[in-house]
Amino acid sequence: xxxxxxxxxxxxxxxxxxxxxxxxxxxxxxxxxxxxxxxxxxxxxxxxxxxxxxxxxxxxxxxxxxxxxxxxxxxxxxxxxxxxxxxxxxxxxxxxxxxxxxxxxxxxxxxxxxxxxxxxxxxxxxxxxxxxxxxxxxxxxxxxxxxxxxxxxxxxxxxxxxxxxxxxxxxxxxxxxxxxxxxxxxxxxxxxxxxxxxxxxxxxxxxxxxxxxxxxxxxxxxxxxxxxxxxxxxxxxxxxxxxxxxxxxxxxxxxxxxxxxxxxxxxxxxxxxxxxxxxxxxxxxxxxxxxxxxxxxxxxxxxxxxxxxxxxxxxxxxxxxxxxxxxxxxxxxxxxxxxxxxxxxxxxxxxxxxxxxxxxxxxxxxxxxxxxxxxxxxxxxxxxxxxxxxxxxxxxxxxxxxxxxxxxxxxxxxxxxxxxxxxxxxxxxxxxxxxxxxxxxxxxxxxxxxxxxxxxxxxxxxxxxxxxxxxxxxxxxxxxxxxxxxxxxxxxxxxxxxxxxxxxxxxxx
Length: 509
Ligand code: ADP
Ligand code: MG
What we know:
By secondary structure, this protein is an alpha/beta fold. It has helices at 3-11, 22-30, 32-48, 62-70, 78-88, 103-113, 131-144, 163-170, 180-188, 205-210, 214-222, 239-248, 278-289, 301-313, 327-338, 349-352, 372-379, 400-410, 449-457, 486-495; strands at 18-19, 51-52, 93-96, 124-127, 153-156, 175-178, 199-202, 229-234, 253-256, 266-272, 294-297, 318-321, 344-347, 362-365, 389-395, 416-417, 434-439, 467-472, 477-482, 505-507.
């Protein structure tokens, strides 16, 4: 991490309460010549602020600490630093921080530290609004749980067959992550029992309320013991969330990290257009900036579909993400977007919110949202982790009041820019840097990313740098390959073996 990153972090409201670590200070002091005054200010600040941002300041088992370090989590994020001490004391906590602030690891570390691994009973339950979110939480907890071999984390979500879930439950599980409907079903059928539950987590609580899960969540909680720790996480804080906390928590500690995006991180521009020219303007922005990864936000499913179709016809590599998609297509779309073999994702707020899509070069509002807070959530997906982001918004005259609301909310003045006409050139395709290959083999056959990488780089003569992200699912896997090397990789996998077996492989369209 760089000096400027630390300085920005220090002066963001977010980290105000944290003491810089020795490493941070040494980075800062190395730059002291030009910035002596700043450095002193920071040191002064550190003396006044008692808490530390290193995970090692927490009373955690050394194996867990080492694992956290191996994940590259050098420091706690603000929400982790604020909430974990209380969580580890066993208190009920209500925590609010924007998407992408590291809430999963906050409760993940909390519940892992309380686990009795020798007892194969469900000791922690995380309730999530959607299957994608549950899958992400599962993944993150499994990564955090790598420090010991035997921790069983199970996802119980709708949209997938019931039977295999029953089988997994019978084998004994420590941590369950699930969506309300499917959890209710298991609880009713007594295939899931919560009598040994120690920690209950309500993740993305605001989203659950939005989706009408209040009654279902209440029902799920009615199966849990009264003596338990209840942690409630939310990206926003509202009266209904407070009411939820009152209903399910005991003397909760409230932790809230105000969202603040720094002007320098995200460049925001607005473009005047008309109804009939909106698509053209969007095409221009994409063709001009050529971002490797962009989410285009639409307000309706219908727009989502139409915009994706139109962009596809213009030669862009694009996928639409909305609530009506079958689960396996949603998984595939997200894999391809994250591994950079699809550059543009057209999404509604409902479909995109909470998803851990990091590292976006640009966010484009095809239409501005009704609410300034939603605008801030949307654009917060770009410019993460100290990188610069681009937030471009199309706006017709009737939507000008929304820009005014955004200006008021952010206390800034909107910067307007102009689009040129977008001339579609059929010869020119906007190709993403990677191509995804689909393999007919997965976790069920104990395939790991290393096996696939090994098959490609061993006999195949592909170099590691030509291989991108590898995603392993239960029965299949995806591997991203640099566009120019994809034929070589296909031949190699078709003729060779992965973990001693032949696999079926094809380009994923
Ligand atoms: P939220 O639930 O608040 O939206 P997530 O828990 O999904 O956010 O975290 C966002 C990203 O930050 C994830 O990719 C996660 O691996 C990463 N992350 C979490 N904690 C840390 C940390 N302490 N240091 C660095 N990265 C972290
Ligand atoms: Mg989350």
